[in-house]
Each structure stands twice: as structure tokens, then as C-alpha cells.
Amino acid sequence: MNKQKLIVLVIVLLVAVGGWMMMGNKPQEQAPAPQPQAEQPAEPAPAEKPAEAPAEAPAEQPAEEKPAEAPAPAEKPAEAPAEKAAFHIGICTGTVSQSEDDLRGAERLIEEYGSVSDGGMIQHITYPDNFMVEMETTIAQISGLADDPLMKAIIVNQAIPGTTEAFRRVREKRSDILLFAGEAHEDPGVIESAADLVINCDNIARGYLIVDAAKKMGAKEFVHISFPRHMSYELLSRRRNIMEEACNDLGIGFHFETAPDPTSDVGVAGAQQFILEKVPAWLEKYGKDTAFFCTNDAHTEPLLKRIAEEGGYFVEADLPSPLMGYPGALGIELSDVKGDWPAILKRVEEAVDAKGGAKRMGTWAYSYGYTTTAALGEFARRVLEGAVEVENMEALFECYGKYTPGAKWNGSLYTDIATGVVKNNHILVYQDTYVFGLGYLGMTEVEVPEKYFSIK
């Protein structure tokens, strides 16, 4: 009996121990499972889970409205096609040191129509200051604009020597590009053969009108300053001869003085220094009632400086503008009125008056160089959009008027002096003269005697 009880007790103990061992092993096997789960929340994945959980994502998405809230991405694609230019217009001008106003006209077009680099319409480049020596570079720059498949018009202002060859090279590549030459330096017959439109200051009419204006201002002598390169240009040479004839007819002494060419070895600085040194001597030689005129932009600033200081008269620049020479000559700060021509004119007038130059110094109220660059760009745009024809002179003058509100313009088609043929693609323009302290002289209303148009 006792033996049986002992056996039963042993069996019970074995079962109990086995059960305990099985129960004890279970937690140890499952402990690792909770352990990783307990560590995972501490890891980045569980921490991010709540943010990434599908339950929260829908709740956040409507609040953020990512697709709708992205106006930038939505507008950019919509804006890009709207603003991306359908065609490009290339503008080539001189640099700030040689012809600042021409360059500023290109900047105005960029303000209006955007730069090609930003998806806009205007591609602006500048030719070298020493363009006579670096002519091949200039030609390559201009003709290179035609490599742009969207280029539909090329404007060069001023159209310095080499422009005709550049235009011919453009024509070899592309026949669909409009070619406009502003203030052409090459002989009319040469540039007319390559350009769709040629613009020049009306140097025929102005040859008489500038002398007439000088007389109205009180001048008794007239000094014309230039150099051989400019005198080799037909229109500049004719203007000089017309000025001499006008002086004879109006009772004013005419004198020709030679100055260094800024594109020669002396450069702009040397040419300007020459003028600074010579003007006092010329005033002593010809007297204080002498009006001065120079054919080069770089000569203008030192000439104005000395006239303001020493005396004499200055009707207007070769390519007139309130910015042509006056700011540098008189130390005028204009950065706060940039592009505001009435404000610029007013400030220059105040400076001229302060220097004692009132009624002795003049200009055009709006820059010829600036206006020609801008007007030709605007005209090209209208032609390319089919609004006007290239031959429409009235439409061209409307473009000039867009940039010169209040100023009067006059002009005519160029007539070949040798053949008498009127050139429909060559237009001569001029604006009324504005004398500081006097106002407009009304020169656009003056009738130029017919004989001056036949002087060679």
C-alpha cells in the first residue's frame, strides 16, 4: 500500500515538474517577441508610424491641400507657356562707355518683353568699344544671333562699320529674319543693300537746323569737331558741308577742328583729354559767342564740361539726349529717376542752370539713341506679329512716339544724292531742340530751304 502511494506521489511530482517547466519556457520563448515590439516603438519606424499611418494621412492631406496649395508649381507651368516668347528679337548696341543711351533702350525693351535667358523676347549683346580694330569680332557677334532658331529680327544701333557684312552673313543662314540698322555709319547705298530698314538722324535737315538754332541762341561763330573716319561717312560729310553753307547764309563764321578718333590708339580717355585741353584755347581763339558741335559721343562729355565752365554754346549732340554727356560733365546723380525722361530733363536743366549754362546749352528732351533702340524693337515686334508692314513710316513714328510723349518728330525718306532715287527702306528722323532755360525752339516747324538737300 505504502509502495503504491509512493509511486503515485512520484508520478504526480513528475507531472507537476513537467508542467512547471513547460510553463516557464513559454514566457522565455515569447519574451523575445514582445521585446522587439517594445524596442520598435523606440526606433524611428514606430515613431514615424503615427505620422505615416493611413488614418492620419487622409486627415492631413485635406488640411494641407498639397496639390491645390502648390500655386507655385501650378502657376509656373501655366505661366511659362503664357510668357515664353514665340519669337526672339536680337539687339546689338555699343557699351556704356561708347553709347550708353543705345544700350539703355535695349534694357527698356527687356523690361517690357523680358530677356531670352528668362523665356522672354529680347536678346541683347554689345559690340567692342574698339570696333574698327575688332570688326571681325563684331560681325561674328551680330551674325551669331541668327543661330537661335527663334530669332526673327536683328537690330543694330548704332549700325557701325561691319554691320552690312554681318547682315549678309545672316541672310546666308536665314532669309526669314528682319534686319534693322539704327544710326547707320556705312554709306547709304551699302547698308540699304542688306537691311530691311535703315534709320539715321536727319543730318541733311539738321545741317541747316542746328546752325539756325545756334543763331537763335546768340552764337556768332560755329566750330565743327570731327576726325577723318567720320568725315568718310556720306551723311556726316554732307551735314558738315551743309553746316558750312548754312553758316555762310546766316552770317555765322564756320570753323573745322580735328580731334582724335576714340577708336584709335589714344582710346576714349585720350580723345576726351584732348577736348578738355583744347576747348579753352578754341574759346580764346574764336570768342565766347561760339557754338560747338562734335560728331562723336565720347567727345561730348568733355566738351559740355568746358562749355559750362568757360562759356560758349552747345545746341545739341550728334545723337542728342539729356544723358549724352551731361551727367558726367556736370556731376548729376540720376539713379533715382532712371528711365523717367521728364524727371531726367528737369534735373539736368537744374544742374545746367546752376553752372550758368542756361540759354546756352541744349539737347533733345528724349534720347535719340535710347528711343531708336526701343522704337526699332517695338516696330519689329509689331511687324512680326502682323500688325504693321515694314514700309509703314507712320507706324514707325508711332513707335518713336510711344517712348517720347510730348515731343515732336519730323523726318523723311532718304533720297540718293547721285541718282535722285527715293529709298523706301531708309528713313531720316529728328526731334525738336530743347534749350535749357528756354524750352523747345520749334525746330521741327522750321522749313529747310530746298537747296540744302542737294548739297553733297
Automatic annotation (TrEMBL):
Pfam families, per the entry: DUF3798
Residue ranges, compositional bias (Low complexity): 27-42, 52-61
Top-level division of the source organism's lineage: Bacteria
Region (Disordered): 27-82
Protein name: DUF3798 domain-containing protein
Upper classification of the organism: Bacteria, Thermotogati, Synergistota, Synergistia, Synergistales
